[in-house]
Hints:
The chain is mostly beta strands. The chain has a domain at 13-56. The protein has one helix spanning 51-56; strands at residues 13-18, 24-29, 33-40, 43-50. The strands form two sheets. A two-stranded antiparallel sheet has the order 1-2. Strands 3-4 form a two-stranded antiparallel ribbon. A hairpin with a 5-residue loop joins strand 1 (13-18) and strand 2 (24-29). The longest helix has 6 residues, at 51-56. It is elongated. The model has no long low-confidence stretch (mean pLDDT 90).
Amino acid sequence: MARVCDICGKKPLYGNNVSHSHVRTRRRWLPSLRPVHALVKGEAVRLKVCTACIKSGRVTKAGSRPKAAKPASA
């Protein structure tokens, strides 16, 4: 499974773990990807999307309805 966001293209980052004795070992930071049913050109498609794209509203989820406006209190 490729760990790449289908919307923004975010990929794993690479670097080093540095221990107390300053020994370095390679590690990677993975993006937080979630499987989402999203609307693409009017069709529901399953995508792997990072949580930053979900939070920022770059993805319109399939099956989600806009919330109705609350009636004004008298």
